[in-house]
Structure to design on (326 residues):
């Protein structure tokens, strides 16, 4: 049953972007706030906003449609019950420290950036201590210098902008889809083809806890038609009896794109406790204890227009895992 919450814009929040305003007031992520705007759950003075970045005026009334139901903790927040490891700068490999950007090799287990209601350490918060100037870079104080992200249990290369000029440069490249990213991924099952292109849209699932591939939906993910276009390429690099090692290239940057696409493709990612099929949940997922997803290649242009290429080796834990599977 829907309910409506009313929030009045005061002097402190006047001039703020709508999505940032919502993330702070509702204690949610900015991306989730943008989804609420997209799904027409938000109104300003009884009018639908034109965009997530719309600026608010003093005394504007923001209406939020919510659901009256028992609080359900999203599955991506309840997938781990063991105490989280405390990370420090010593756990983060800085691949390159340039005047305009930093390349980081993110370990599995740490957030890319902190959430409004979760103050645990993240790549962004740790780097901000080492590089205080990052606090003035980017669109949000919660994501200083961050232009893209990796899931907590994934690992690999991240680029962090050191100044706003580089931030906007990278943002534009992501928008134009000129930045190249490739991943190593291990999936359940033997992929028959040597190459595949997954080209179907992604949108929020009915329960809103994860992304669903449309029109190809998995039981429990049915939703209205729609979603945003998403394109993923797969190359089978090594085929085992029960698994396939893939090289993955994404041409769009949707939330959980690889994980949702692989689930819809009937080959869920090994170690994924959110995007999986119960019938295929395997002891190997628990044995690995993380996603078998590693961003090993990152390519972009710097402020001078020169192409920069960075690569990362597969983590030792993933290498060892490949030796014991069949």
């Amino acid at each position: 049953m829907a309910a409506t919450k009313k929030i009045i814009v005061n002097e402190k929040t006047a001039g703020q972007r709508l999505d940032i305003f919502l993330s702070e007031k509702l204690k949610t992520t900015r991306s989730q706030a943008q989804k609420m705007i997209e799904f027409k759950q938000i109104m300003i003075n009884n009018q639908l906003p034109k965009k997530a970045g719309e600026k608010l005026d003093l005394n504007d009334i923001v209406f939020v449609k919510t659901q009256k139901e028992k609080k359900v903790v999203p599955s991506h927040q309840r997938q781990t019950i063991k105490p989280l490891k405390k990370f420090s700068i010593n756990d983060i490999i800085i691949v390159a420290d340039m005047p305009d950007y930093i390349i980081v090799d993110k370990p599995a287990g740490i957030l890319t950036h902190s959430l409004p209601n979760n103050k645990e350490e993240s790549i962004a918060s740790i780097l901000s201590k080492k590089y205080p100037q990052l606090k003035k870079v980017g669109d949000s104080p919660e994501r200083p210098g961050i232009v893209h992200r990796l899931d907590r249990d994934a690992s690999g290369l991240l680029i962090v902008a050191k100044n706003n000029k580089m931030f906007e440069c990278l943002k534009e490249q992501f928008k134009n889809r000129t930045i190249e990213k490739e991943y190593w991924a291990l999936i359940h099952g033997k992929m028959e083809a040597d190459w595949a292109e997954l080209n179907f849209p992604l949108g929020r699932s009915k329960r809103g806890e994860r992304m669903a591939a449309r029109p190809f939906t998995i039981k429990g993910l049915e939703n209205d038609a729609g979603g945003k276009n998403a394109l993923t390429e797969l190359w089978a690099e090594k085929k085992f009896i029960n698994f396939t090692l893939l090289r993955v290239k994404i041409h769009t940057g949707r939330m959980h794109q690889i994980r949702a696409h692989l689930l819809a493709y009937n080959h869920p990612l090994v170690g994924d406790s959110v995007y999986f099929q119960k019938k295929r949940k395997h002891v190997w997922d628990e044995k690995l204890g993380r996603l078998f997803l590693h961003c090993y290649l990152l390519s972009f242009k710097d402020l001078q227009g020169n192409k920069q290429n960075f690569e990362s080796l597969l983590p030792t834990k993933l290498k060892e895992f490949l030796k014991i599977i069949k």
Remarks:
- Residues 2-67 form a domain with the Structural Genomics Hypothetical 15.5 Kd Protein In mrcA-pckA Intergenic Region; Chain A fold (CATH 3.10.290.10).
- DSSP finds seven helices and 14 strands in the chain.
- The mean pLDDT is 84.
- Helices lie at 18-25, 30-38, 123-130, 164-175, 257-264, 283-288, 316-324.
